[in-house]
């Protein structure tokens, strides 16, 4: 499963991160993330992997259950 636009937005919300925060930490252009989250484009798989890895390193767990994909915060960052 790859990170979805909804998971990306939800993860940022749980962490209290802006687009700029995620872009800086993932070293990905802010506009790339914005367009992804708004459904205007789908990034390359490598970009999605970097986004997911960055969010996981900050304490986000990507989950899949009977109601669809989601996210949860498993630990807080310092």
Integer count of domains = 1
Low-confidence segments, ≥5 residues, pLDDT <50? Answer: none
From the spread of the alpha carbons, the general shape counts as globular
Q: CATH-wise, what's the superfamily?
A: lambda repressor-like DNA-binding domains
Chart the SSEs and their pairings.
Layout: H1 5-15, H2 19-26, H3 30-37, H4 45-57, E1 60-65, E2 68-73
Antiparallel strand pairs: 1-2
Task: Explain what you see.
By secondary structure, the chain is of the alpha+beta class. The chain has a single domain, classed as 434 Repressor (Amino-terminal Domain), CATH 1.10.260.40. Helices cover 51% and strands 15% of the residues. It has 4 helices and 2 strands, in the order H-H-H-H-E-E. It has helices at residues 5-15, 19-26, 30-37, 45-57; strands at residues 60-65, 68-73. It has a two-stranded antiparallel ribbon with strand order 1-2. A hairpin with a 2-residue loop joins strand 1 and strand 2. The radius of gyration is 12 Å and the shape is globular. The model has no long low-confidence stretch (mean pLDDT 93).
């Amino acid at each position: 499963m790859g990170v979805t636009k909804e998971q990306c937005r939800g993860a940022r919300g749980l962490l209290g991160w802006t687009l700029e925060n995620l872009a800086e930490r993932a070293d990905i252009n802010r506009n790339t993330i914005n367009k992804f989250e708004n459904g205007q484009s789908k990034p390359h798989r490598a970009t999605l992997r970097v986004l997911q890895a960055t969010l996981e390193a900050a304490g986000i767990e990507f989950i899949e259950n009977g109601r669809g994909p989601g996210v949860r915060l498993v630990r807080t960052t310092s």
